[in-house]
Amino acid sequence: MSEITRLDQNHRRARAVVHGDTVYLAGHTADDRSADAAGQTRQVLAKIDEMLAAAGSERSKLLNVTIWLADMADFAAMNEVYDAWVVPGHTPARCCGAVTLALPDIKVEIMAVAAR
């Protein structure tokens, strides 16, 4: 049986869970929520890079990415940042949709699954 490791855990969630050779990241949001969608996307992707590194992975090993936007009008701005971030030839499966996010100043939330 594979061990389960939880990173940055509190009573409600872990920011990452590692099981076997798979890393599951929680939804990540920007710390500076005064930023526009592109700025929030940059912040979130930096957090994802940090969590993947802490779990022994990296963005070239992403398997799946789920992106939630508060407003699909931000789709192009988010994609411009995301497209520059993903590793060419190693793009993950991905979906993106508009949802009501937890707080009104959150424009982007992203969760991911990666191999180690």
TrEMBL record:
<dbReference type="InterPro" id="IPR006175">
    <property type="entry name" value="YjgF/YER057c/UK114"/>
</dbReference>
<dbReference type="InterPro" id="IPR035959">
    <property type="entry name" value="RutC-like_sf"/>
</dbReference>
<protein>
    <submittedName>
        <fullName>RidA family protein</fullName>
    </submittedName>
</protein>
<dbReference type="InterPro" id="IPR035709">
    <property type="entry name" value="YoaB-like"/>
</dbReference>
<dbReference type="Pfam" id="PF01042">
    <property type="entry name" value="Ribonuc_L-PSP"/>
</dbReference>
